[in-house]
């Protein structure tokens, strides 16, 4: 079992690991969650501009299910259920945010900042969920809640600024 920071040999040794490590984005030593979120941004930008919203949300749901599998497999193999280098959860959660926010740089940047703040700070019940939920579902779900908080804050900001 591996509790240390994985290398590229491990990250690219199995399809589940490739996805869990965000195609290598999670291998950065400082801020892998931020790197994973940044890696998802251009993908979300392109998809949100070319895919109908309902299809984008369906794709995010499918990627969430894929994340349960790939993060579960990778976490079990590493011996650390939610290793920081696994960034698929951040990527999928941020794709959800990009699917909902206006396709304007200011809103998307605000979504990025809000999501990273909630994902790092883990206000209730995020930290509680992170500690209680197991396996790939636990890895994926707490980031989904952080994305929900980010969207809620941005919706309130939009309401107050309108």
Blueprint of the fold:
Layout (H helix, E strand, L loop, with lengths): L7 H4 L3 H6 L11 H19 L2 H26 L9 H13 L4 H17 L4 H7 L2 H27 L1
Keywords, separated by commas or semicolons:
mainly alpha; 8 helices
Task: Explain what this protein looks like in three dimensions.
There is one protein chain. The protein has 162 residues and is mainly alpha-helical. It has one domain (8-161). Helix content is 73%, strand content 0%. It contains eight helices and no strands. It has helices at 8-11, 15-20, 32-50, 53-78, 88-100, 105-121, 126-132, 135-161. α3 (32-50) packs parallel to α5. The termini are far apart. The mean pLDDT is 94.
Write a compact overview of the structure shown.
This protein has eight helices and no strands. The longest helix is centred in the C-terminal third of the chain and has 27 residues, at 135-161. It is mainly alpha-helical.
Q: How many domains make up the 3D coordinates?
A: 1
Low-confidence stretches: none
Mean pLDDT: 94
Rg estimate, integer Å: 15 Å
General form: globular
Count of helical segments?
A: 8
Helix content: over 70%
Number of DSSP strand runs: 0
Tell me the series of helices and strands, N- to C-terminal: HHHHHHHH
Largest sheet: none
The secondary-structure class comes to mainly alpha
Strand content: under 5%
Ends distance: 52 Å
């Amino acid at each position: 079992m591996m509790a240390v920071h994985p290398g590229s040999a491990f990250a690219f040794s199995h399809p589940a690991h490739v996805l869990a490590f965000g195609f290598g984005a999670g291998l950065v030593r400082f801020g892998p969650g931020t790197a994973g979120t940044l890696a998802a941004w251009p993908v979300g930008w392109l998809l949100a501009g070319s895919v109908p919203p309902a299809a984008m949300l369906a794709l995010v749901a499918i990627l969430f299910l894929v994340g349960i599998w790939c993060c579960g497999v990778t976490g079990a193999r590493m011996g650390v259920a939610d290793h920081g280098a696994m960034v698929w959860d951040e990527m999928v959660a941020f794709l959800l945010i990009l699917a909902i926010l206006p396709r304007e740089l200011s809103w998307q940047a605000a979504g990025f900042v809000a999501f990273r703040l909630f994902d790092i700070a883990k206000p209730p019940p995020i930290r509680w969920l992170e500690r209680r939920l197991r396996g790939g579902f636990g890895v994926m779900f707490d980031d989904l809640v952080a994305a929900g908080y980010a969207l809620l804050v941005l919706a309130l900001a939009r309401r107050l600024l309108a």
